[in-house]
C-alpha cells in the first residue's frame, strides 16, 4: 500500500495538515482559555475593589465596621458570588455565602500584601458545578479607621470550564472532519494529478527496441509532468536514432565485410577446384586474397576506432607539436599517391603553428582527407592542401579538382559507410568502406574543432578542418 506515490502523497498531506490544525487549535484554545480566565479574574478583582470602596464609604457615613460590612455586601449581591470581609487577624466581620451555602476561604495571611489582589482557586465541588471557585482576596487599609480589612470575593469557574469544554468538543469534531474531507480531496487530486504518470508508465512499458517510434502521451507540455514526458520523448528520439544508426551500421558493416570474404572464398574455391594449376594462377589467387585481406584489415581497424570513440574508451594522448610539420609530413605521403595516379599535388606556404593534441589521430585525419581527395580525382587533376590561422583557429583546407559530390549526397558525407556513388562496385574499386570522413570528423570534434564540407560541385571539392589555437 505504501509503495503507491498517491498513498504517500496523501498521507504526507494529511500528516502536515493534521500538524497544522493541531498546532493552530492548541494555540487558539490556549489563547481563549487565557482570555476567559483573565476575564474571570478581572471580574472578582473588580468586585473586591468595589466591595472595599463601598465599605469605606459607609464607614465614612458613620456606620460601624460591622454595619458597613453587612450593608456593602447587601448592596453588591450576585447570586453565584460569595463575599466576606475579615479583619487583619482573619476573623470574619461579615460574610454573604452563595445560595448553596458556599463561603469564601482565606489563604494563609502571610501571602497577602496591602492593596494587592491575591488570587487562588478552591477546588471544591459546588452543587451543579464541577471545577471549584476562583477567589480574589484584597487587604485594604481604611482611611477612616486606620485599620486593615480583608475583602474576599469568590465566583465559580463553571461557565469558563463549560465554554472551554464546548470549544474542545467542537475542535474534536472539526479536526477529524477536516482531515477526512482533506484526505478525500487529496486522494482525488493526487490520483488526478498522477494519472498522466500512470499513462506514461503504461506506454513506457510497451516500448521496446522493436517500436521505438512510440512516444509517451503529452497532456500539458508546460507543467512538470509535461516537461518530464517531453524529456523522455526526446530521449526516445535519441535512442531511436542511435538504434537506427546501429542497425544501419551493422547492416553496412556486414555488407562491407561480406564482399571481401566472398571474393577470397570464390578465388580460393576456383583455384582449388582443379588439382593441377599453374604457378601464376596460384599467385593470382593469393594476390586477390592478400588485397581483400588488407581491405578487411582497414575496415576492421576503422570500425574499431569508431567503436572506441562511441564508448569513450579512446582517450587522446595530447602533446605539444607543430601542426605545420605534421601537415608537411602528411602532404609528402599523399604526394606519392597522387604522383602514381598522374595527379598534381600542391602545398601552400605554412607558417609556424604550435598545436596541442593527439598527433597520431590528427595525422590520421589529414591522411583520410588527402586520401579521399586523391582517390576521387582523375589523372591530370590537382589536389592541394593549405593551412592558416584565423579567428582563434587553425583552418586546414584540402581541395581537389575531382568530379565533386552530388548535391543530394552532401548532407550525408560524414555518415558511416556512406558512399555517394551507389553504383560503384565495392569489391573491385580498392576503396574504403565509407568510414574515413566519419573518423576524420570525430577526430576534429575530439579536439574541440570541427570538419566541414565547404564546397563541392563539378569543379571539385573543398573540405576544411578547424582546430583551436592553444591559449598559451
Explained architecture:
The chain has 472 residues and is of the alpha+beta class. It folds into three domains: 5-163, Beta-Lactamase, CATH 3.30.450; 207-314, Helix Hairpins (Orthogonal Bundle); 316-468, Heat Shock Protein 90, CATH 3.30.565. Helices cover 52% and strands 17% of the residues. It has eight helices and twelve strands. It has a five-stranded antiparallel beta sheet. Strands 7-9-10-12-11 form a five-stranded mixed beta sheet, covered by helices on one side. A two-stranded antiparallel sheet has the order 6-8. It is rod-shaped. The protein starts with a helix and ends with a strand.
Defining traits:
472 residues; Beta-Lactamase; Helix Hairpins; Heat Shock Protein 90; 3 domains; five-stranded antiparallel sheet; 8 helices; 52% helix
Protein topology:
Elements: H1 5-60, H2 65-75, E1 82-87, E2 92-96, E3 118-122, E4 133-141, E5 148-156, H3 158-206, H4 224-272, H5 279-311, E6 318-322, H6 323-340, E7 344-347, E8 354-358, H7 359-375, E9 382-390, E10 393-400, H8 436-446, E11 450-457, E12 460-468
Parallel strand pairs: 7-9
Antiparallel strand pairs: 1-2, 1-5, 3-4, 4-5, 6-8, 9-10, 10-12, 11-12
In short:
By secondary structure, the chain is an alpha+beta fold. The chain has helices at residues 5-60, 65-75, 158-206, 224-272, 279-311, 323-340, 359-375, 436-446, and strands spanning 82-87, 92-96, 118-122, 133-141, 148-156, 318-322, 344-347, 354-358, 382-390, 393-400, 450-457, 460-468. The model is unreliable at 422-430 (pLDDT under 50).
Amino acid at each position: 500500500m505504501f509503495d503507491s506515490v498517491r498513498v504517500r502523497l496523501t498521507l504526507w498531506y494529511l500528516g502536515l495538515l493534521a500538524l497544522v490544525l493541531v498546532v493552530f487549535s492548541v494555540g487558539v484554545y490556549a489563547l481563549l482559555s487565557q482570555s476567559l480566565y483573565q476575564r474571570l479574574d478581572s471580574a472578582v478583582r473588580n468586585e473586591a475593589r468595589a466591595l472595599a470602596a463601598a465599605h469605606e464609604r459607609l464607614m465614612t457615613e458613620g456606620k460601624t465596621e460591622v454595619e458597613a460590612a453587612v450593608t456593602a455586601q447587601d448592596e453588591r449581591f450576585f447570586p453565584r458570588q460569595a463575599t466576606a470581609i475579615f479583619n487583619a487577624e482573619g476573623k470574619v466581620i461579615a460574610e454573604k455565602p452563595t445560595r448553596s451555602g458556599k463561603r469564601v476561604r482565606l489563604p494563609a495571611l502571610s501571602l497577602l500584601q496591602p492593596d494587592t489582589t491575591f488570587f487562588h482557586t478552591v477546588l471544591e465541588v459546588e452543587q451543579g458545578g464541577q471545577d471549584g471557585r476562583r477567589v480574589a482576596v484584597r487587604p485594604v487599609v481604611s482611611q477612616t479607621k486606620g485599620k486593615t480589612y480583608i475583602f474576599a470575593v469568590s465566583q465559580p469557574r463553571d461557565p469558563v470550564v463549560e465554554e472551554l469544554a464546548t470549544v474542545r468538543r467542537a475542535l474534536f469534531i472539526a479536526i477529524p472532519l477536516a482531515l477526512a474531507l482533506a484526505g478525500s480531496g487529496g486522494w482525488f487530486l493526487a490520483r488526478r494529478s498522477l494519472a498522466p504518470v500512470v499513462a506514461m508508465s503504461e506506454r513506457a512499458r510497451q516500448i521496446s527496441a522493436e517500436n521505438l517510434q512510440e512516444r509517451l502521451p503529452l497532456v500539458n507540455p508546460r507543467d512538470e509532468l509535461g516537461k518530464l514526458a517531453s524529456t523522455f520523448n526526446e530521449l526516445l528520439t535519441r535512442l531511436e536514432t542511435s538504434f537506427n544508426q546501429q542497425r544501419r551500421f551493422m547492416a553496412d558493416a556486414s555488407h562491407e565485410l561480406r564482399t571481401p570474404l566472398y571474393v577470397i572464398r570464390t578465388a580460393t574455391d576456383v583455384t582449388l577446384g582443379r588439382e593441377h594449376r599453374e604457378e601464376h594462377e596460384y599467385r593470382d589467387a593469393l594476390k586477390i586474397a592478400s588485397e581483400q585481406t588488407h581491405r578487411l584489415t582497414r575496415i576492421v581497424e576503422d570500425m574499431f576506432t569508431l567503436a572506441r570513440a562511441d564508448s569513450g574508451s579512446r582517450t587522446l594522448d595530447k602533446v605539444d607539436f607543430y601542426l605545420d610539420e605534421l601537415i608537411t609530413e602528411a602532404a609528402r605521403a599523399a604526394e606519392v599517391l597522387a604522383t602514381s595516379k598522374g595527379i598534381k599535388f600542391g602545398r601552400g606556404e605554412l607558417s609556424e603553428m604550435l598545436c596541442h593534441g593527439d598527433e597520431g589521430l590528427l595525422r590520421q585525419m589529414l591522411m583520410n582527407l588527402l586520401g579521399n581527395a586523391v582517390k576521387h580525382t582523375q589523372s591530370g587533376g590537382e589536389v592541394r592542401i593549405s593551412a592558416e590561422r584565423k579567428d582563434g583557429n587553425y583552418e586546414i583546407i584540402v581541395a581537389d579538382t575531382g568530379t565533386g559530390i552530388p548535391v543530394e549526397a552532401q548532407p550525408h558525407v560524414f555518415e558511416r559507410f556512406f558512399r555517394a556513388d551507389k553504383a560503384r562496385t565495392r569489391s573491385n574499386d580498392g576503396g574504403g568502406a565509407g568510414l574515413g570522413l566519419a573518423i576524420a570528423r570525430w577526430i576534429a570534434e575530439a579536439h574541440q574543432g570541427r570538419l566541414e564540407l565547404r564546397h563541392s560541385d563539378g569543379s571539385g571539392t573543398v573540405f576544411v578542418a578547424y582546430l583551436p589555437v592553444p591559449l598559451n
